[in-house]
Structure of Phosphotransferase:
Amino acid sequence: MTDSSSILWIQSIWLEKAKIWIDDELARQGIERIGTVEQPHIRHWSTVLKLPTNVGYIYFKAVMSELVYEASLTQVLSHWYPEFMPQVLAVDGKLGWLLMKDGGMRLRESLKTEDDIRHWQSILPIYAQVQRESTKRIDELLRIGVPNHRLTVLPTRFKELLANTEVLNLDRPGGISLAEYQRLQDYTALVTNLCDRLAAYGVPESIHHGDLHDGNVFIHDGRYLLFDWGDSSIAHPFFTLHSTYRNLTNRFGLEKTSCWFELLTECYLNSWVEYETQEKLAQVFHLVQRLSPIASALRLLPVLSSMDEVTRKKYDEWMPSLLREFLNLNN
């Protein structure tokens, strides 16, 4: 799947430049490329090259300039938490290029039946551990360019989102209607209120993956590895479950009352009991659910804003869907 803005990824000049960098970095580590380069992933925001080498497959990822921090973020996370992250071979932080070893099998291929959701009962405590330990490293994460979506700035980010009427597809078929837009404008004070209420609890802000679903978790030698940090921000840690639960709902047709959500929420919140009682953590999670669609919408904003009108039409439903979810949750 290509679009007018992702043509860069298939230009021969760009591909040749990438291959030269790849071969130089592999040579530094005594690795030799031995076959034809494949390009299994081409999107507006990123591309992936699959490289056969004498030590197995190596993967190269390049991202758009708005997400360039992903390369440096993946590198530091792999250094801090090597047992949970991709094995990084090289990065170019300015270009947003990343070279990694094979991560194994995607979790998606292991989720055959609803009972396989139990994998998440092992994954969420691992992810929460990364978040808890990263609370001490917020300044470093911000310095490498991870977006700041903390509670103190979230209301301002929400107003900036509403000002981008092109991304909202305002008053167009399938987009945000004028009536919905007015309601969103009226809810700016509510967003501030929810942020203030969340800030009053003791749960610290940390790294928020932004897109933690079964396509971004890999299983390698019995370990779970957390991939694809390009949608990350510094934010309330509990925002993450929004994407995870949306994915599970779409994959298995789960109802909101499914016991799986109760089990996984309890599993995740148990990792945060050093900060608040279980009762208060449940209150925090309830408040977070009301704001989570906004956090998800903000991660899409730089990607959608960078698209031309023709390209953006392919993703017209993304932003309106999240904002309508926010309106419904706060009705």
The mean pLDDT is 96.
